[in-house]
Each structure stands twice: as C-alpha cells, then as structure tokens.
C-alpha cells in the first residue's frame, strides 16, 4: 500500500484526510463539516470522548 492508496487499497489522488493527510478514496472518506476525514480519525471522533488509550487502529 503506497502513500497514495486508501486503506481499502483503492488508489486515491483526489481526497485526503484533513486531519492526518491519509489518502482516502471517495467511498471511504467520511464527510464532516464540509471536509473529508479518514475512517481512523472519524472513528476516533465518534467513539472516543476526550482521552483515547494507545492502541492500533482497526482498519477493515
Ligand atoms: Zn485521518
Ligand atoms: Zn477506500
């Protein structure tokens, strides 16, 4: 998986997570507040309150 590939392995050159810069394809991007975020960041926003334990993200 290259830096330009989404987590689902679809190459994405048009969208990027506004928070971490990760490549996200249109199918996986999570639109929030008129910006696109990756699933990891969107999930952390929705699932974690303020503090999040250090553990790897679960990408599916
Ligand atoms: Zn991100
Ligand atoms: Zn994707």
Task: Explain what this protein looks like in three dimensions.
- The radius of gyration is 12 Å and the shape is globular.
- A two-stranded antiparallel ribbon has the order 1-2.
- It contains 1 helix and 2 strands.
- With 60 residues, the chain is of the alpha+beta class.
- The longest helix is centred in the C-terminal third of the chain and has 9 residues, at 39-47.
- It binds zinc ion (ZN) (2 copies).
- Residues 17, 19-20, 22, 37-38, 40-41 line the site of one zinc ion.
Topology (SSEs and partners):
Layout: E1 30-32, E2 35-37, H1 39-47
The structure holds zinc ion (2 copies).
One zinc ion (ZN) is lined by residues 6-8, 10, 24-25, 27-28.
* Rg of Cα set: 12 Å
**Distance between the amino and carboxyl termini:** 14 Å
Hetero compounds: zinc ion
Mean pLDDT: 78
Helix content: 10-25%
Give the domain tally. 1
How are helices and strands ordered from N to C? EEH
Short summary of the structure?
By secondary structure, this protein is of the alpha+beta class. The protein is built from one helix and two strands.
